[in-house]
Specification:
Elements: H1 7-19, H2 24-35, H3 48-55, H4 59-71, E1 76-78, E2 82-84, H5 95-104, H6 108-129, H7 132-147, H8 152-169, H9 173-190, H10 199-217, H11 221-240
Antiparallel strand pairs: 1-2
Length: 265
């Protein structure tokens, strides 16, 4: 047997290690395709089978790598269509921030302080840079808020979409990404308490969003920044005044069944 004979066996071993290796191979391959301009926003990635062949890994490894890329906001999976590079504003995965919120107990004040830092500047940039389509999107979300003041959870959806649209209209993809991430965390923390908002609070919020929209539409950057700041301060104050969920009444050990008192009006 010649000295070179063992070489194919070694190559097979190296390839097998690669096939069972880290999902980092998949992430690096997709990053390389993006760097070379072969994948751009809106493009569909090759099928799992093709990616597995290109990279030299198993299909489960490809799927794990795509999940990691999805968590980073790099790709989106569409059922029945494949995996795509998002065409809209870049988004960052919120999982890490959600874990930090759970560990460290982000407060309402923390959230609104972060939003003021990001969104006041974004509103000013949007007033300078927003396209006609982006202004139309803002108008639709404001109209949606006025139309859903009797449904606080749907109002919340329009509210958050408005702020995301302002960030996208800023023309700065980093700002848009950060606002997307913080907005997702805000929705997660607010959706279970949105019903606490009073009719007055919802009217005030809708009116402030309309004023922000008007400032952006007329390209009044200073007014957009000032109104966004005033809105976020007001929203934080309104939430601070909301009633907490009532604690359940203690049950008497001797009581066979609980007795309910009529609610006061």
């Amino acid at each position: 047997m010649s000295p070179a004979a063992p070489q194919p066996k070694r190559e097979k071993t190296v390839r097998a290690r690669h096939a069972d290796g880290s999902t980092g191979h998949v992430v690096a391959h997709v990053r390389n395709l993006i760097d070379r301009g072969e994948l751009r926003p809106g493009d569909r990635l090759p099928a799992e089978r093709d990616l597995a062949t290109q990279i030299g890994v198993s299909r489960p490894t490809v799927r794990a790598g795509l999940r990691a890329l999805s968590a980073m906001g790099v790709v989106q999976s569409r059922h029945g269509s494949g995996t795509f590079i998002p065409a809209g504003p870049p988004s960052l995965g919120t999982e890490a921030l959600s874990f930090l919120a759970a560990l460290h107990g982000f407060t309402r004040e923390d959230m609104y302080e972060a939003r003021r830092i990001l969104e006041v500047g974004a509103a000013g940039l949007a007033a300078e840079r927003a396209t006609s389509d982006q202004i139309a999107t803002l108008a639709e979300e404001v109209a949606g808020m006025f139309a859903t003041m009797d449904d606080p959870n749907m109002f919340l959806v329009h509210d958050i979409n408005f702020h995301r649209a302002v960030a996208a209209a800023s023309g700065n993809p980093i700002v848009a990404s950060l606002v997307e991430m913080v907005s997702a965390l805000y929705y997660e923390s607010r959706r279970d308490t949105a019903a606490r908002a009073s009719d007055r609070d919802l009217r005030d919020a809708a009116d402030m969003h309309r004023r922000i929209y008007q400032a952006i539409r007329t390209h009044a950057a200073e007014a957009a920044r000032g109104t966004m700041h005033a809105h976020l301060v007001q929203a934080s104050e309104h939430q601070a005044q909301e009633p907490a969920d009532p604690a359940p009444a203690p049950r008497s050990p001797a009581a066979g069944k609980s007795r309910r008192r009529p609610a006061s009006h």
